[in-house]
Amino acid sequence: METGKKTAQEILAMDSEKLAEAIRNRSVQDVALGILQLAMECRDVLHVFVWYVAHVRSLDIQVYSKDTIYVEGMGKVRLLEETFNFKRDDIKDLLAIEDKLIELVAEARDKAEVVA
Asked: What's this model's pTM, rounded to 2 decimal places?
């Protein structure tokens, strides 16, 4: 066997690692897009701000009540503030953020139904 040439098993292992990483990255992207979609769909009960910060590869999420007044000097109550770093954090961290957001949306919808 020549040195420098990879065996079929080594090539397969490398391809499998690349595929697993691609699936993991795609899953993280899917969750991030789901958070953005949820932000758009719950605007009637909450104000959800989602920013992707490209230079540090992070996703920042802030949640406020729909009654928040965005005026300088007015106190704003932030219901949630989270940052997910795509390079450092695990998908479990992003899923936990998504769960918190889903819980806040459910609570806000329940309160809106009680008032109505």
From this structure: 0.74
